[in-house]
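Standup notes
- DV: blocked on the single-chain target, sequence here:
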Amino acid sequence: MQIEQFIIFFLLLLTGFFCKKYGAFNDAVVGGINVFIISISYPCLILLRTATLEMGAGIFGNFMFTLFFNLGLMLVFGGYAWLYLRGGRFGNEDRHPMELAVIAPNNGFMGFPIAITFFGDIGLLYMVAVNISLNIIFFTYGITLMKRGRGEPDEPMSKKIKNFLLMLASPKVSAALVGIVFCYTGVKLPAIAVDYLGLVGAVATPMAMISIGTMLAGNFGPHSFKKRTVLEPVLNKLIIVPLITFLIVAFLPLDPLVKTILVVSNALPVATTVAILSERYNRNKGLAGEILVVTTLFSMVTVPLIIWALGQLPPFSL
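- DV (later): unblocked, structure below
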């Protein structure tokens, strides 16, 4: 494993931290950067990498399998999180963000750069698959979870279908689907398109890591590392969930790269959407933000160790 790459990731995080801490970036700048990354830079990277792959039926089959298998895994983790957090230990305003935090990894902002750096173009393609499954969970289970216990009526099926179609039309998912069509049909992108997509997509990884670093300058401190409402989701997200994933996939007759991506993707820190949904549905956004930051910090140690450990095991050897 190239540990130097994780050192670079950490330095990029620090860059974002200091830019936010000392005023080079304000909230408006960070918001603009995030929109650019999500809506333009990552879609360019995904379209370029998928459209220029040599994709046979096997890789396409692995992509679809990864998407649906990870969807099933996340439902399993949802059941586990509900069982783990049930009872009177935590209040509803805390428990619901904690529950979603356990199952929702940052397989976009952090997953994409890790996949492309350590597992190449096909690894990125499979990480896109697990990101699509995460978005499906957010638009369905995540919203239902945030409304739980308030007696609010469920959304009509027409709205659920509309949300699902909006998810499919999002830039990242659309780029992946278009790229797969180009790749599978053998149609070549024009040279000027390849150059443009390459230039814009090249900044996605450093900008994403810098953006994540800005979160570390938020409202958290030493007290965050002493709160059960933070530490228990962190332990589950970074250790227990990837261990469960490992035990499920290790002995299945799957492509080693698919196994690796499934484990690594579920070992990533909490997705920023958890905090966004917590704010939207008036749950404890501050707690969700603390969990996000603390998992991100600890993941700089746990994720490299997991990638290294998987590389030593025959079922995951690439």
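- Follow-up: The CA atoms of residues 44 and 138 lie 23 Å apart.
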